[in-house]
Amino acid sequence: MARHHLDNAGYSPPSDESSMDMGEENDDELYETSAAEVRIGKDIQGIPWERYSPREVERKYRLDYYRLEYDENYRSVPNSGEASGQDCKITKKGAPLYDFRHNSRGVKSPILHFQLRNLVWATTKHDVYLASRYFVQHWSSLRQMKHTVLDVIGHVVPSENRPGNLMQGFTKTKISTLAIKNRLLILGGCQGELICKYLDRPGISFCFKITHNNDATINCTEIYTNPSGSVHFTASSNDCGVRDFDMEQCQLTKHLQYPWPVNHTSLSPDRKLLVVVGDNPDVMLVDYDNGLTLMTLPGHLDFSFASAWHPDGFTFATGNQDKTCRIWDVRKLPEPVAVLKGNMGAIQSIRYTSDGRFMAMAEAADYVHVYDVNRDYENEQEIDFFGEIPGFSFSPDTESLFICVGDRGEYGGSLLEYGRRRNYSHCYSSIATILKAQAEGNSQSDDIPSSSYTRSLERSYSLEAPDCKLCSRISRVKAPAFLRSCDGPVKRLKSELKLQGIACILLQIESSAQSTMEPRNQ
């Protein structure tokens, strides 16, 4: 069979809604991929490369094609991507921060707008919600099943009669953005529609239309709880506005206006500062209480479509069509503290993990970059695949990373699932060190042994305490007291390790413990 290229990269309009993913193709299961299969050499997307050019040739072709296609059709400022690379940070690529778990075919989220990619939202490490043109679907990675939770192709009306609710509702709403938090789902439409639904309640709670202008696409929504405890959400739109809504009252509470379409906003953890980006190269930092612009931050060379705050409330990131993500610190403005470079196209999605340890940015296609924030963004894991990216999301507990691959092309349309990598090697050495110290009688008091073992333990604690509950626990107790409280050290270690969910290394720990205890038993 003659080899050929995968479908050309770049945005293509979605097909008619009659071809939506209400069902999977017959051969979807043939191309699903597990972590075990990837370890023995299978492609993560199940692509049979024997039908095509070699993967490295295909990668070069897509890089060249996409750069040309993107520059000619989708960049607002010509050559902004090439001009922005001079001050970018050099990173160490290859850091294994998240491990591949599974590629699920048939879990698709078609791209309705080539610049809007906020269509994926994870609520647990096993549950993810995806917008699919006229539907919102839930996917469970445990059951490997999906179902529709919201259908807006028909007539949708609110079930709660409150002031401010648009009781006539909407029909055939094209979904442009999605946000989910605390069981509340906010859906934005391409004609200014806002639809709110609680996932644990029947019906629709809130419908609102921001304007009757033709160009009123909702570009971004964000759910938050204000200091008084009431649930609010913000909506940014093409009509140059940022609106704040009170879900308890179903009313508009704030409306900020800007001279250009607002593509994305992010509210700081303390709800005081708002980052505003849009069809303008500058980033605006706004006092959200009074709506006044505190500072305008230059640096980007094109229009921006992504932003995100670090949980510490000091750092935020912005993503731009100039192929960069800029990291800003409110204590060191107006210069960015780091500039991160993409490979092919615009940075259109940015997320921080809830613990602030990692930040990820997604390009328009083929690449998601995950950075270790604690290492000053120097360690980078580059996740490389083939397909447009409707969106991605970390789970709230940071354990999972879901990346949706668009349904363009024969092997597109899937959900890549990754799990956070945990390094327990220091944990093992800490346990073995304590047991060895106890066996050799090196402990002079109820404190952890003051010897070379102590320094090893301290290094282990300092490296692993943020990630390893077991190390954190051992570091808070006194070593001999800890061992005396056990009905046999190995038995206690087994129970501790089972609680941590790493029973697969019990034999290794047991053999290590037995070898260190033998001299004392004799």
Architecture overview:
The chain is an alpha+beta fold and 522 residues long. The chain has two domains: 81-420, YVTN repeat-like/Quinoprotein amine dehydrogenase (Methylamine Dehydrogenase, Chain H, 7 Propeller), CATH 2.130.10; 425-521, no CATH class. The protein has nine helices and 32 strands. Strands 1-3-32-31-30 form a five-stranded antiparallel beta sheet. Strand 16 (241-246) and strand 17 (251-257) form a beta hairpin. Helix 4 (425-440) runs antiparallel to helix 5 (452-464), helix 4 packs parallel to helix 9 (506-521) and helix 8 (489-500) runs antiparallel to helix 9. It starts with 32 loop residues before the first strand and ends with a helix. Residues 8-26, 443-491, 496-510 and 515-522 have low confidence and may be disordered.
Characteristics:
globular; 2 domains; 9 helices; Methylamine Dehydrogenase, Chain H; 522 residues; 32 strands; disordered C terminus; alpha+beta
Short note summarizing the structure:
The chain contains nine helices and 32 strands.
Which homologous superfamily in CATH is the superfamily of the largest domain? Answer: YVTN repeat-like/Quinoprotein amine dehydrogenase
Percent range for helical residues? 10-25%
Terminal Cα span: 70 Å
Amount of beta strand: 35-45%
The profile of the biggest β sheet is: 5 strands, antiparallel
Poorly predicted parts? 8-26, 443-491, 496-510, 515-522
The CATH architecture of the largest domain can be given as 7 Propeller
- Number of DSSP helical runs: 9
Q: Please indicate the count of domains.
A: 2
The side-by-side strand order for the widest beta sheet comes to 1-3-32-31-30
Radius of gyration: 26 Å
What is the fold named in CATH at topology level of the largest domain? Methylamine Dehydrogenase, Chain H
Instruction: Give the number of DSSP strands.
Output: 32
The pLDDT mean sits at 78
**CATH domain class name of the largest domain:** Mainly Beta
Shape: globular
Structural class: alpha+beta
